[in-house]
């Protein structure tokens, strides 16, 4: 790599970091200076500004669109979640190891939800369970309601990092379960176990919520050969 290229990378990093510090204090949707204005401000070439912009887009901090230029994006962790989802698909980890991760996370997630849930959270958990009960287990509607229930528990926990982790995990599980012909046969257990988890959260009982979540997840581990495709079991 040439000295010029290394210099450009260092400059773009400096510009990106400076802009990042400023962006964190701005409102979502606020427009940032143009490429020409940034080049003049930092006394760098437009190439350096474009590279800095690319870095900010990768970090999920800005959006670039025709006519509006660069604007502040909502920081929702979607970029990190996307990368995490790719890592799950590319890794050599097994379904059982993914379930180990869920056991570590979701038991405490359910316990925290029981302690911190709001009326809105409880209403959404009820709605999702009603949707689950009404759906045909062989359709995507049932699977979507199943996974959305777990994301809502993450939401109710009051910890945004749980939701950041759960979304890509659920995307991975959606692919695994969709390819497994036996997933619908476990529907009755899923409905009942979700009801028990929701009831424990509604009761504000962390220990009971933790127990209900563990019972649900360990049943999935026991029946994983039924739930997932042969590809996922290899």
Characteristics of this structure?
Four Helix Bundle (Hemerythrin (Met), subunit A); 234 residues; 2 domains; Arc Repressor Mutant, subunit A; mainly alpha
Describe the structure in your own words.
This is DNA-binding transcriptional regulator, FadR family. The protein has 234 residues and is mainly α. Helices cover 73% and strands 3% of the residues. The chain has a two-stranded antiparallel ribbon with strand order 1-2. α1 crosses α3, α5 (95-116) packs parallel to α9 (187-202) and α6 runs antiparallel to α7. The model is unreliable at 230-234 (pLDDT under 50).
Percent range for β-strand residues: under 5%
Indicate the CATH architecture of the largest domain.
Up-down Bundle
The major beta sheet can be summarized as: 2 strands, antiparallel
Q: What best-fitting shape do the alpha-carbon axes yield? A: elongated
Strand order of the largest sheet: 1-2
Helix content: over 70%
For the record, the count of structural domains works out to 2
Low-confidence stretches: 230-234
CATH superfamily of the largest domain: GntR ligand-binding domain-like
List how many beta strands DSSP finds. 2
Q: Return Rg in Å.
A: 22 Å
The chain-level structural class is mainly alpha
Mean pLDDT: 86
What is the topological layout?
Blueprint (H helix, E strand, L loop, with lengths): L2 H21 L11 H8 L3 H13 L3 E4 L3 E4 L5 H13 L4 H22 L2 H16 L5 H17 L3 H19 L8 H16 L3 H17 L1 H4 L2 H4 L1
Antiparallel strand pairs: 1-2
């Amino acid at each position: 790599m040439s000295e010029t290229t290394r210099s450009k990378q260092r400059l773009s990093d400096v510009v990106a970091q400076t802009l990042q510090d400023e962006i964190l204090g701005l409102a979502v949707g606020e427009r940032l200076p143009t490429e020409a204005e940034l080049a003049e401000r930092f006394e760098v070439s437009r190439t350096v500004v474009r590279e800095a912009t690319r870095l900010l887009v990768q970090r999920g901090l800005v959006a670039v669109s025709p006519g509006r230029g660069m604007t502040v994006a909502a920081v929702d962790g979607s970029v990190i979640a996307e990368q995490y989802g790719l890592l799950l698909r590319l890794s050599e980890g097994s379904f059982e190891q993914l379930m180990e991760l869920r056991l570590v996370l979701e038991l405490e997630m359910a316990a925290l939800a029981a302690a911190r849930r709001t009326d809105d959270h409880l209403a959404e958990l009820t709605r999702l369970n009603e949707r689950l009960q009404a759906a045909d287990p062989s359709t995507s509607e049932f699977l979507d309601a199943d996974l959305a229930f777990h994301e809502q528990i993450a939401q109710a926990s009051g910890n945004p990092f749980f939701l950041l982790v759960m979304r890509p995990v659920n995307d991975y599980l959606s692919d695994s379960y969709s390819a497994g012909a036996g997933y619908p046969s476990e529907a009755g257990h899923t409905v009942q176990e979700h009801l028990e988890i929701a009831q424990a959260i509604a009761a504000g009982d962390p220990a009971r919520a933790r127990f209900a979540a563990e019972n649900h997840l360990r049943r999935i581990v026991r029946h994983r050969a039924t739930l997932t495709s042969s590809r996922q079991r290899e």
